[in-house]
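Structure tokens please, single chain.
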Amino acid sequence: MSEIADSGGGEKGGKKRAKKQSTRIDMTPMVDLAFLLLTFFVLTSTFSKPKSMELTFPVPPNPLDPPPPAIKNGITFLLTKDDKIFYYEGEYKAKDQPEATVVKELNYSQESLHKYLADKNKRLQDEIKNLEAKLQAKQIPDTTYKRLVRNAKADKSSPTFLIKTDDQATYKNVIDLIDELNINLVGKYVVVDILKSELDLVHEKTGG
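Here you go.
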């Protein structure tokens, strides 16, 4: 609310003087409105929540149990310092065995890690795209789509990716790799401990 205060006027020396008016603005309603808006935004806003990522770790082995069967369709990533990624496919074979394991190197660029995962997981990606097309065309319900996607990701023919790190790799390296696995719709990956023989291969490559 505003008020106009009249300071009065009069005559001086036979001349009429103009009345002087001053304006006073009442800011009380504006303050009330500001508090109402502040209360509204506090009650309706969503505070940032800590982001988490689900990781799958194997169950600790029982010493009395027989050793698990080797993962024949596995791809192992070895993460180390300087954002380096080494990998090999299939079962690990020592140097004294025929066709001993040889590691190759990747990096986190689109033309390296992303392209490699896209090529390796192309069959699954095509299958999921076909399911998405059927869902959009309303040929299958949403529940059926989710079930078929889960089954496709768990299929035995799909590769299993093993993530292993030495003590010089960073958490960022692991998260970046898992992000790429999720982007490429990889259904089976697990974080496991690195073997001493695998660590030796990494050190040979890095000179560490």
